[in-house]
Specification:
By secondary structure, the chain is of the alpha+beta class. It has one domain: Bifunctional nuclease domain. The protein contains four helices and ten strands; from the N terminus they run ββαβββααβββαββ. Strands 1, 2, 3, 4, 5, 6, 7, 8, 9 and 10 form a ten-stranded mixed β-sheet that branches. α2 runs parallel beside α4. It is globular, with a radius of gyration of 17 Å. It starts with 13 loop residues before the first strand and ends with a strand. Bound molecules: zinc ion (ZN). Zinc ion (ZN) binds next to α1.
């Protein structure tokens, strides 16, 4: 692998995936210097277009923006960071996740079909077979002791709302499987990044 910047001979440290409208628009490898440059440049771009959905009180509507894999970390040390960006705004939530969550999310973006049943698809089928429909996903809290983000699946069944607590990364994947919106508690959102916030990311 090589840094995607022309004529750069430095060994890449990161893999990046840029996402728009829930599709991958670019991906590649970068050395640390170019990754930081790209990130600052990309951050100054306009926000994701506003949609018409009304966010539940105390939350903001957010969508997939950028994924960065730090190759200098051991795969068991949650090397991937997902940036969820506020729709119609500039705040974001960055979540560190493990390699398994990263590959599951990436498979969803590519709409890859797997040779065997996949956990999240089986989970989604279970919800449907029991007469449920996912309404949305709310990332609602950070467990400060463990630095894990929690989410709630809001499921409509027999005209009633049921909630299921999950890891945020599972909630993200299921929002893609069902094509539903993600909302994030306002208190978890932080302002526009000016640089890569790798050390400050909490886990899923
Ligand atoms: Zn480079």
């Amino acid at each position: 692998m090589k840094c995607t910047e022309l004529n750069c001979e430095v060994k890449p440290k990161f893999h990046f995936t840029r996402i728009e409208s829930r599709g991958i628009v670019s991906e590649g490898y970068m050395c640390e210097e170019h990754m930081r440059y790209y990130f600052r440049k990309y951050r100054s771009m306009k926000s994701i277009e506003e949609n018409k959905l009304t966010a539940p009180i105390g939350t903001v509507c957010a969508d997939f923006d950028l994924m960065i894999w730090d190759y200098s970390l051991d795969p068991k040390d949650t090397p991937c960071i997902l940036y969820m960006r506020e729709v119609g705004g500039t705040r974001y939530l960055c979540t560190r996740m493990d390699a398994w969550a990263w590959s599951t999310l990436t498979a969803q973006f590519y709409q890859r079909t797997e040779p065997r049943p996949v956990s999240h698809e089986g989970w989604a089928d279970s919800i449907r077979i029991l007469g449920g429909q996912l309404q949305d996903v709310i990332v609602d809290k950070l467990d400060e002791a463990d630095n894990w983000f929690h989410a709630v699946l809001r499921i409509i069944q027999n005209s009633q709302m049921k909630t299921v607590n999950v890891r945020a990364s599972d909630g993200y994947v299921l929002s893609l499987v069902f094509g539903k919106q993600v909302y994030i508690d306002e208190k978890l959102m932080v302002n526009l990044l000016i640089d890569l916030d790798i050390d400050g990311a909490n886990s899923d």
